[in-house]
Amino acid sequence: ALDNGSSLVVIDPRRTESTQRSELLIQPLPSTDAALALAIANILIKNNWIDRDFIDNNVLGFNEFKEHVQHFTPEWASEITTVPTDLIHQLAWKIGNVKPMTLIPGYGMQRYTNGGQTVRAILALSVITGNIGKIGGCWHYANLQSYVFDDVLEPMCYYPPDKPDGITRRSISTARLGDEMLKTSNPELKMVWVERGNPVTQNPDTNTVLKAFRNLDFRVVVEQFFTDTALEADIVLPAKNMFEQTDIIGSYWNPYVQLRQKVVEPAGEVKPETEIYYSLAKKLGFSDNQLDGILIPPGDEGVIDFLNQKLKAFPSLSLDELSKGPILAPGLQEIAFSDFKFNTPSGKIELLSEQAVEKWGVNSMPTYEPAKEISDESSIKYPLILMSPNTKNRIHSQFGNLEIIKMVSGVPKLNINPADAEIRSIKNGDLIEVYNDRGVFQVVAELSFQVRVGCVVIPNGWWSSQGAPVNALSAGRETDMGHGSAFHNNRVDVKLLRRS
């Protein structure tokens, strides 16, 4: 797109590879994106840089939103975000006058306690400028929408229903996993079964998660590798990899469904999770008749039968057709919302949403609320905002043990602005300690102007055995909407341990 004449604006507290080709770099204080977006909405409406026809036909609550954003001036936003007012005006002009315009929000800004309202505020900019459902004019957000089977029968073992005989499924917040495991009672937790995850590394508040795991009588982990979580297990069952069982998958990045075909047999005693469930059920005394229709029987044929049953809900999908290539998921379009049908109570995009109030207890309109810890008195004790973005070298903690990944990633390093390093007598390559009330770890300091003053950066996903368990410093907090984990609401300080 850039080679064909499109312009790029980057909004990020860091300088990344994307900024090398950007026309404009905006560096707000982390967690203040909603304030920036609301001020831009104020400018767009005042200057009539909006799409009135799109608003009239597709938007609920614009008049209320217009009145709402009058109070969010560029001067107000500048004080909160630290972005100069002239840059806010420049950005607003581009959003309002360059057509078509696409907003691509990353995951980082949603992982604060105000993340839900932040997403709503940014989305409002695409909405009021009419950049929804058009080629090149859209809201590009990864959300796995092409996985269309959520409402289709899954094996009962995944989602046991509430029953009078006491078989129930209790919910525990992912964000507060450790704390809620410790507090769960009537009955209290005695064992844990972990698969498709590495919570000791990836869930917030690592030390509390470890305490909860070590408080249990029995721990089972189904894994390919000896992760931090697997090392806590009493029993580790070897898991299949993605090439060892046929499945149907969606995508975070496009609206297509595709067939992932089995290409190799599992090695040794490795079994797909579906076979582990079935074998365990037989050991517990259940007969084949009792398990019929509830668990997938062992072997490739059972998997294929199960997938065919799921596909019956979608006449346009079949294994034969999927074997020829990806297929547009039923009910989706090549360009999202190009049919201008919106799954809301009003059938329109709701800038004014009573559903948001009822379900999440937030303001009915997008607004800015200061993020916990980032914006409070903890800045006195821990003056640095910790950012833990993803890295291009791995997916979170996955495959972090592979030698080729280690070779590319090197050793864990904390990026710190030279001004913040100088105050602490830290030089490039020094061994430093990163800490707050929740935890501590040691890493190498890397001085960099790519990080703004007052922030430090280290990618998430480093294993404890590699020395940088970043979630040892993160709090177990939920986002304001969506039950997400507020991974980034953390302040820390650093100190010198040893010269390089």
Helical stretch count? Answer: 17
Strand order of the largest sheet: 11-15-12-14-13-16
The main β sheet shows up as:
6 strands, mixed, barrel
Give the tally of structural domains. 3
CATH topology of the largest domain: Dimethylsulfoxide Reductase, domain 2
Shape: globular
Fourth-tier CATH superfamily name of the largest domain: Dimethylsulfoxide Reductase, domain 2
Low-pLDDT segments? none
**What's the β-strand tally?**
16
Q: What is the percentage of strand-forming residues?
A: 5-15%
CATH class of the largest domain: Alpha Beta
Percent in helix: 25-40%
User: What separation lies between the terminal Cα atoms?
Assistant: 43 Å
Computed structural class? alpha/beta
Mean model confidence by pLDDT: 91
How much is the radius of gyration in Å?
Answer: 25 Å
- CATH architecture designation of the largest domain: 3-Layer(aba) Sandwich
